[in-house]
Amino acid sequence: MLDEAHLCLPFEAMLQIVSDSPDLHPVEAKKQLIPSFKCLSLSATGKQSDKQAFGLEDKDLQDEVVVKRLNAEKLLTLEVKNEGDSTSELLSARAWQLKDSGQRILIFCTKREDAKKIKDDLDKRIKQDRVIYPVNLLTGGRRVLERQDLVRWLKTHGFLAGSLTNLETPAFLIATSAGEVGIDLDADHMVCDLVAYERMVQRFGRVNRRGEKQAQIKVVAIPPKLPSGKQPASFDLTEPELPNAPLENADKAALKQYKQDQKAFDKALKAYQKAQEEHAQAVASYQQSAKAFLSYQAQLEIVTQLQGDASPGAILALKQNVSGQLLASAISEELLRPALTRALVDAWSMTSLEQHAARPGVEPWLRGWLPNKEPETTLVWREYLPWRNDDDSPNTTEVEAFFDHAPIHLSETLEIPVYQVVGALVKRLKHVFKGQELPEKPVLLVLNQSGKMVKEGALTARQLVEKETKDLQNLFAYQQVVIARWLGGLSTAGLLNDNSDGAALVTLDHQWNPDSLRETVGYRIQCVQHDELSGTGWHTVHRFNATLNEQEESTKIWLIQVYRGEKSPQQGDPAITPFNQSLRSHLHWAGEEMAKIAAQLALPAEYVYMLVAAIKAHDLGKNRDRWQTAMNAPSTGRPYAKTTGGGNLKLLAGYRHEFGSLADVANDADINQLPEELQDLALHLIASHHGYACPVITPIDPDAPPSILGERAQQAALRFARLQRQWGPWGLAWWEAVFRAADHRASKNSKELAETEGRA
Q1: How many degrees, rounded to 5, is the angle at CA 495 between CA 493 and CA 497?
Q2: For 396-434, b where at least 16 C-beta lie within 10 A, e where not — what string?
Q3: Which of 694, 708, 736 is nearest to 346 (CA)?
Q4: Of 663, 633, 638, whose CA–CA distance to 651 is shortest?
Q5: From the CA atom positions of the chain, what is the Rg in Å?
Q6: Domains detected in the chain
Q7: Closest residue by Cα to residue 459 from 480, 484, 442, 436
């Protein structure tokens, strides 16, 4: 179910291809076992489609609430200005004219830079009038934490639909496209610039949503730059003639002349090629500017035809009466997108391969090819970087292990164009060390989206300043940049700001809200001196020795602790739980949960038997002293499936219990009696229930020699390939999801089951 489908047409098209392409789904003999894939698109803009659509019917138009909302009073005025006029100044001035209403005033603009200018101008006007009016920004380019805090501001000041808040003063909210969807905004009045039709519909819907007031909407239209009146001059496409080749016995003068002619020709050819490029750019620029102007004219005509009424009913009537060609010209241009093939999906589905030469990034399939899109990066500030000050560079293995246990959390991220980042960070460094020589002090780490450190991704203060801007931009593009908190660079509003120091900066590992750490993040990072921290529900999963003496002993330790209390955000099947759980009990409960799920899915009896048999053996690989000791399992009562933690995961030395389970099920009678095809599926589900074996899994097991381990891992990969051909990428993923669901449910309910078992 794809909501706001008009915003992501390439993604909608991709989903439709997935739904309609037989080669992406199970072979004919298997299709009845897997739920079919269906795509349902939703859009409030009345997006045209040749398929059957669900919408308001005649009887709906008699409903009292529907009528009230369709006829909500939204008085529309359109003001056409001149090319080159300042959008920010005009919108700020028109919003200020509405201040005497004492209501919630929403300002929409296209550019983030204009939003900041509008806020600065309103703040200036408020200061000059010596009043206190709330003003806030709803834009991208803001840390998620502060964006989440904004929701509370919106609620307090009545900007959320259905609010009963009564304001004593006007309140201003300035928004970009971030406010057009995904949030139930409701203002009393609005000022905005002119944009594509579907976006105007979204904006109009953010005013007087319940139809209980009379709203004013002021649209300011500033035409784009007109295209040049004449096409650029064409160039002579005739290539210069090559000089005659010299004779074998030519004299020195002839050879010299030939070289001169050749040099002149090369120069002329280079100039010609440059002229061709300039001509192509000029033509493209002309076409683009002409297209933008024609779109503007169509958008202007659409708003004009509303005749001062921006109610949903008026928009519905307009859509029914306006020509399809005009409407098509007024909406955003659909972006080009790449084709989706089975080979691509197969490459993407090999999720346990960290690198794959034929696996491109998915963004063009989700968003299309965005013209002139600036590369972005994700910024994160942390107090603790796993990089000892005395080391020239951090240990890559230590860095990746650290972020594997304390991964980047969405709430601490700031996504922003790369070109804005480099200059801000360099300015901060020069300010922090003003008048001093820049030290070799760790300042940032660059990780890819999987949490792995990129090549040359560790920079000290001196290295950051000495690197070329272009090199830094290439290094940061589409990566995660973890910045030391002491550097600063983030304002209290969550915006990148080279004037903001790090003293008051809140980070996930420094003064973050404790309730959020427990209930949302799920882990915390603490610095201790030798002794471990304790706390109800917190369990240590990783240690980093922040300082080392000559004897390689640590005097300062950073602990990563996960929360496994009642409100733990941890989903799935964590090995660390609030209590110890025997392996026998966990496998028994998992089998019961699988039987329930399989029955609810009405699967054939042979598949139910296979699933239950597989899940009763999926964790047998935990019955190794190596695993039990690494997880700090009690010495008595072993083997355990779940422990309270506090062990040392380094002792696993790469061992995966799923890989061990593959060996242990060799003597399982229930699995051995399965048909070969079902046995294949059972073994794959066992190997992949934590995401590995798609198609690779590390061949490490203390109970077998390397030759046998290599064969076992190879068979896991071949098994994946066979099943992928039979079930298709989404069909096989569906089986994996069913299998994990039972494992997760058994883990979630294990405490209650354990108490029941104890009473029995």
Answers
A1: 115
A2: eebbbbbbebbebbebbbbebbbebbbebbbebbeebee
A3: 694
A4: 633
A5: 32
A6: 376-512 (no CATH), 525-570 (no CATH), 581-759 (1.10.3210)
A7: 442
pTM of structure: 0.81
Beta strand segments in 250-402, E: 376-382
The residue type found at 82 is N
pLDDT tens across 534-583, in order? 677 888 888 898 887 665 666 788 999 988 776 666 655 677 777 788 99
Count how many Cα atoms sit within 13 Å of the Cα of residue 129 in the half-sphere of its side chain: 12
Exposed/middle/buried for residue 232 (C-beta within 10 Å: 0-12, 13-18, 19+): middle
Chain Cα centroid distance, residue 266: 48
| 159 touches 173 (CB < 8 A) | yes
Contact residues for 287 (Cβ-Cβ < 8 A; gap 6+)? none
Token reading at 706: 């390397």
Q: Tens digit of pLDDT for each residue in 642-684? A: 888 777 878 899 999 999 999 999 989 999 999 999 999 999 9
- Give SS3 for 372: coil
| Interatomic CA distance for residues 514 and 520, integer angstroms | 10
Give tens-digit pLDDT for 708-733: 999 999 999 999 999 999 999 999 99
- Cα gap 484→445, rounded to integer Å: 9
> CA–CA separation, 445 vs 464, rounded Å?
11
Contact (Cβ atoms closer than 8 angstroms) between residue 13 and residue 39: no
Nearest to 656 by CA among 403, 352, 405: 352
Read off the tokens for 197: 């039709």
What is the Cα–Cα distance from 109 to 123, expressed in whole angstroms? 17
What Cα–Cα distance (Å) separates residue 164 from each residue in 103, 160, 190, 212, 753? 13, 9, 19, 12, 45
Dmax over CA atoms of the chain, in Å, equals: 110
Angle between helices 706-748 and 676-688 (to 10 degrees): 80
pLDDT at residue 760 tops 50 = no
* d(C-alpha 496, C-alpha 491), whole Å: 6
Read off the pLDDT of residues 150-185 as tens digits, 9 standing for 90 and up: 999 999 999 998 888 888 899 999 999 989 987 889
